[in-house]
Amino acid sequence: MTGGDMQEPLLTVRDLVVEFPMRRGTLRALDQVSFDIAPGEVLGMVGESGAGKSLTGASIIGLLEPPGRIAGGEIRLRGERIDNLPPEAMRRIRGRRIGMVFQDPLTSLNPLYTVAQQLIQTIRTHMDVSEAEARKRAVALLDRVGIPAAARRIDDYPHHFSGGMRQRVVIALALCAEPELVIADEPTTALDVSVQAQIIDVLKEICAERGASVMLITHDMGVIAETADRVAVLYAGRVAEIGPVRDVIQHARHPYTRGLMGAIPTLEQTSDRLVQIPGAMPRLNAIPKGCAFNPRCEQVFERCYSERPSLRQAAPNHQVACWLTEEGSA
Amino acid sequence: MLAFILRRVLQSLVVMLVVALVSFALFRYVGDPISTMMGQEATIADREALRERLGLNDPFVVQFFNFVTRAAQGDFGISYRLQQPVMELILSRLPATLELALVSGVLAFVFGVGFGVYTALNRRGWMSGAIMSVSLIGVSLPTFLIGVLLIWLFAVELQWLPSFGRGDVVALGDWWTTGFLTTSGRASLILPAITLGLYQMTLIMRLVRAEMLEVLRTDYIKFARARGLSNRAIHFGHALKNTMVPVITITGLQLGAIIAFAIITETVFQWPGVGALFINSVRFVDVPVMAAYLMLIAVIFVVINLIVDLLYYAVDPRLRVDRAGAGH
Is the Cβ of B93 closer than 8 Å to some Cβ of chain A? Predict the structure, then answer.
């Protein structure tokens, strides 16, 4: 289930640094982010807005918006470096080996083309199949993602579908060339609560059937808890904690993660207010020296102000970047 | 769809009636046609007789009704100046203007879209910078100056192209004459077409560029990239098609403007079109020709607008409201 150390990871991200050169100095949006995704694994990626979740996804698929650029580290897909590939080689990986689902299904589909046109174009870009064969695959896939009467509705335009249905179409589009990894960037945030769970289920099921790994970017810990095998917690462009979902939820080591868990409402909860972390995440140009979380941390001590903690093994498969763990006091 | 066309045609009719009213008002308020027609020596009795014969003593509404009825049949009366039926005059001049407008419209559209797409895709290239700078000239220089400069350069200095007229023309059918079929006709078209189309081209180019940049930022383009589609498919399939909706509107309206405001270019190049005819008519207060020209331009604008609206349907599926399939 949880990747494990014996299997070769599908995706390896090592010390990834993403910078934005600005007029007044360079902003470091991602700072030495490292994680692995094993074949078939669902990795959840959580954090507040601006923590760098989406940037991580964009870096992996090679679609960082300029002036953002990868300034250090490396990204490997099945051991092969993909962060420095020429554009044409990277284009062939996108869609074919790494698929991506975006947040807003209402704006993700080109309004002027039918669903069939968009699906068939994508399939035929990556696979050497005839138009008829591509269409057959497209219908089967739409059917699989839960579009009723897929064979008829495939010739409809995106505006004929509701938001939830459109996100199913988007998932079909992301998966139609059978990628090994799907990056889902807040796939349900723009949807009605009532259809969120269905969309997550569809995504998870299909990826499981095909053995595709998923990197699920969200700020919804509930979704992570139900869907992911492992979870990575991002804070101010750094990985604060990464480990199996159950471990991280039940035995969060990093004070920030504990704060996040405290913010999930539970049925047993008796207090009126949810726990909240005081303060706000620092701006990228004002990240404090040492641990980025030090201004908001309740257990802060001297070392947190001077030295930055690196990710360390706290339990099997469970890594934390916190001096408390280092000291053995967590 | 049919209901939409019908509604648009009805609206067009209203527009035409209003324009007809303005044209008609010309007759009443731009001098007294009787004195224009009869000269100084006519007696008052003669004048009254003619006035009665031409129906000028009838009530306003009756006169207007007669004007519209005749106009609808293509009868705009006789030109004061040339003593020929106005319709005949205009028809004999129309091919020259339409051919000129067509060529400059096509030039403006093809180069406008081409340059617009190029500058949007290569935003930071030096070629784009050069094109954008030159386009500023196209926008800011007045048409007559561009025309005169082109004549000076290509007709006077280099002597490559003729400086005026339409060259040799060939008659096609009853009234259409074309310059496309002779060498001198084609050569004569080049300078006026560039003069007339340059401003429109820069306008279209800047519009395409702005729209294209906008579209390239949208989520569906980002998603298309994330699916690994080729740049060609993304730029010329997904992006350009979405760019075209506003571009079609502007191009359509500009085509009307090209036809209507060919006056200056036709004057500079002594092009024998309706614009030149109109200018001369204004000089001699030839009201029937002026009125007919007004109506003609209105018809052209109305027809082009109708075509533009229909093109929307062809380009944008969201406008084809088939309520049966919508909203699941």
Answer: no
